[in-house]
Amino acid sequence: MSYNKTASITAETINPKVKIFDYEPCGEIARHAERLEQEMEKSPGSRPFPEITYCNLGNPQALGQRPITFFREVLSLCDNPALLRRDETRMLFSPCAINRARKIIESMPGRNSGAYTNSQGIRSLREAVASGIAARDGFPSRPEDIFLTDGASSAINLSMQILIRSQEDGVLCPLPEYPLYSASIILHGGTMVPYNLSEDGDWGLEIFEVKRCLEEARIAGLTVRAMVIINPGNPTGQVLSVTNQEEIVEFCRKEGLVMLADEVYQDNVYVEDRKFHSFKKVARSLGYDENDISIVSFHSVSMGFSGECGRRGGYMEICGFGDDVMGEIRKVASVTLCPNIGGQILTSLAMDPPKLGDGCFENFMAEKEDIRLSLAKRAKTLAGAFSSLEGMTCNRVEGAIYAFPRIHLPAAAIKAAKAEGMSPDLFYACRLLDATGIAVVPGSGFHQVSGRNKATGTWHIRCTILPGEDKIKVMIPRLKEFHESFMNEFRDRS
Amino acid sequence: MSYNKTASITAETINPKVKIFDYEPCGEIARHAERLEQEMEKSPGSRPFPEITYCNLGNPQALGQRPITFFREVLSLCDNPALLRRDETRMLFSPCAINRARKIIESMPGRNSGAYTNSQGIRSLREAVASGIAARDGFPSRPEDIFLTDGASSAINLSMQILIRSQEDGVLCPLPEYPLYSASIILHGGTMVPYNLSEDGDWGLEIFEVKRCLEEARIAGLTVRAMVIINPGNPTGQVLSVTNQEEIVEFCRKEGLVMLADEVYQDNVYVEDRKFHSFKKVARSLGYDENDISIVSFHSVSMGFSGECGRRGGYMEICGFGDDVMGEIRKVASVTLCPNIGGQILTSLAMDPPKLGDGCFENFMAEKEDIRLSLAKRAKTLAGAFSSLEGMTCNRVEGAIYAFPRIHLPAAAIKAAKAEGMSPDLFYACRLLDATGIAVVPGSGFHQVSGRNKATGTWHIRCTILPGEDKIKVMIPRLKEFHESFMNEFRDRS
């Protein structure tokens, strides 16, 4: 029998796991914004705003964050090592960067920055990462436990691939969640076990709630293998307290859960009363070593002061998995050969930056602090602006790069959304985009409202704090004006 | 009930799909070579050779291939766009590279090379790739159909993820195969349907053999969804004739199979009587458009004259999948956000290199031709050397970067291998490595002997042609000496 072309590949015949997940940060609003932008290019002035303000994606450099000079100089030299032999180079690059680039090139296979590396990443760069972790935590870290990766997302995917055997395997994930997690769990054939963060408790994590979800999942026949914790939080912007972190460590240890600690916002903390502590540090401080608890920590160069999203650099530190499992992870990593070298270099620089005494230390620190202080200011301004709006409440943005205000939508707005076949928060986000050019992600994109939990029926938007201070100044009055007219249109008249 | 730590993650409790595949190019021989290298570092002179010759991995720059100057200059400038505003830059970079870098930076989100890009890759770079494909084939190519990727391997994984629904879905793959394919099919839960290449027919592909395998698979209840063709071949080094390619296109069209065309060695062709033709070009030349046949073509910057393996740049061109499927592919791609920017830039440069009239054209062409001519020379020398050995036969290395000689092993050697619990080709490869420092991959690593096919019981090694001409000159006598003594030890005495 012979098959015809139409049977070979259609949306009906692709992997159904691909079809069922949704990924809103790149979904409806992103496409809508792109359409608007194209429309405005064709007919300038057709909209009451000059440009789209992309607050939907955590993409610092697209919104004007400057890269760290030292990082880019080192990258540039490693790409073109011939420069290291030229005198003129000293006119264009700092001695600091020249030294570091030389050291990196020396440690590369074939003394060249274009060969496949070890699948875990170049050893000397992993050593730099491990020493950065040890300095951060005050506890040792080993280069054997570090996997350099193409950003945190590929590391998270790899972890799910290792952990998930079937639909009977569950992974605890926070709600609202960063939707990479549900996508990755679905794609690898497992089951997401959601637990609710507490909006009333500064988006903290209540152990009794997690325990309830774990028990429900077990009763339903699932083997829960791991727990994802995002700290600082995305989309929620909270920074967990040490006490809360200790409870989580105790819980995972007792229940035999692998901790998947998404710590990519570790350098984005804005409030005096909170500090970042890695889960590994918290566990070690409690006296637990790798025989007591398994922890994977994910980090990347995409956020923090580097903001190098497009470079796809990151690492995972895997503790407590045993040599045989590590061998299997190395094998899977070797299928895609190695992480990209530019990302590997950047990751080593971010974790092992210039030190006091290095020529470029002061400039580096100044650039870093500028970014942090400005983000802290914007976090406060935006959260304040949202809180000041009728029917909106917004927790403090303690960390990460998002405000996640709750909108108490009037019944008429919810009805109007339904009539257009949209969730109410998407309806609000579309109206906001059309009126102001401000693109945000509706809370439902983070599965905030995926049923069977008390948060059902609450509506949110996620708005990055990334537009420059000048832009935020312009953005806030536009936001206020829109919100007022939206509320006027739909306000409950009871 | 509370679980103890030991239950949380062990080699017994990880995803079994991870456990069952093997990936020999990074396996036994690679580890053995690494151990030897460490041993030699500790006690220099402990072995009768000065260094390990890594002929096991296709890693050009690790073995001394020089990167193309133009490529590295552009990369270096894009990493550090501040250079574009400095006069001194003209002393260090060609005007050609400066112009190209300026053009690339202008087209980037935020005019910055560190932001997330579109998940398919930056549009202008996809346009450059599409124009390169059109110039190569003489048929149009559209940037919408191009996905820039972190090397070809991630593109291949993505394709398998889209195509495979369950173990009942099969994918036709050549034997000997590049083991990424079996690994990827297993990891995505499908079934590999192997077909044999014909060693006697210059490693060509015999349609009756593929048809036989397809029919057997269908009788066994499989839905065969796609056919992988590697051209030029890995590990076999053949370049398919146009007639053979036409047969394959007709076959896939008639049988409703998606063609997965691994064309990463398209710039590695060394013989006068063979040329590279993309499968898309062959299909279009036969008058078939995207309504007639679905083709995915994979390419990367890792091989060819660029040899930029560690940069993880590549693309896939997807033709004939329909808009809804393309939407799903975009969604899956967006889960890992975007391919790395350095790889994206390199891919655009490789597909849209300097043209006649550009200032750096001559230098670029000279570098490119140097690499090609030297590889052609090495291909001939190595294949000749292997053929000259007792009990060895070696097909012409028409393309790619591998010689894949067959070893007719004496019965005593096969017995000795069995006694050590090794496959005979691994036994030979280990002995070769221990005696000479030359690392090659045993043919069984390419599943050459995975049963139920007529090639069972033939033994091969894969040896890259990548060591420099000087090194090959030293390597050949060592190889000959080893082989002679191996044969003396095991020669059949009947």
TrEMBL record, chains A, B:
GO biological process: L-alanine catabolic process
Keyword Nucleotide-binding recorded: no
Lineage of the organism: Eukaryota, Viridiplantae, Streptophyta, Embryophyta, Tracheophyta
GO molecular function, one term: pyridoxal phosphate binding
Family: Belongs to the class-I pyridoxal-phosphate-dependent aminotransferase family. Alanine aminotransferase subfamily.
Superkingdom as given in the UniProt entry: Eukaryota
Alphabetical keyword list: Aminotransferase, Pyridoxal phosphate, Transferase
Name of this chain's protein: Alanine aminotransferase 2
Functional description taken from the UniProt entry: Transfer of C3 units between the cytosol of mesophyll and bundle sheath cells to maintain a nitrogen-carbon balance in the C4-dicarboxylic pathway.
Subunit structure and binding partners: Homodimer.
Needed cofactors: pyridoxal 5'-phosphate
Enzyme Commission number(s) from the entry: 2.6.1.2
CDD domains per UniProt: AAT_like
Gene3D superfamilies in alphabetical order: 1.10.287.1970, Aspartate Aminotransferase, domain 1, Type I PLP-dependent aspartate aminotransferase-like (Major domain)
Domain Aminotransferase class I/classII large residue range list: 95-450
Pathway as given in its UniProt record: Amino-acid degradation; L-alanine degradation via transaminase pathway; pyruvate from L-alanine: step 1/1; Photosynthesis; C4 acid pathway
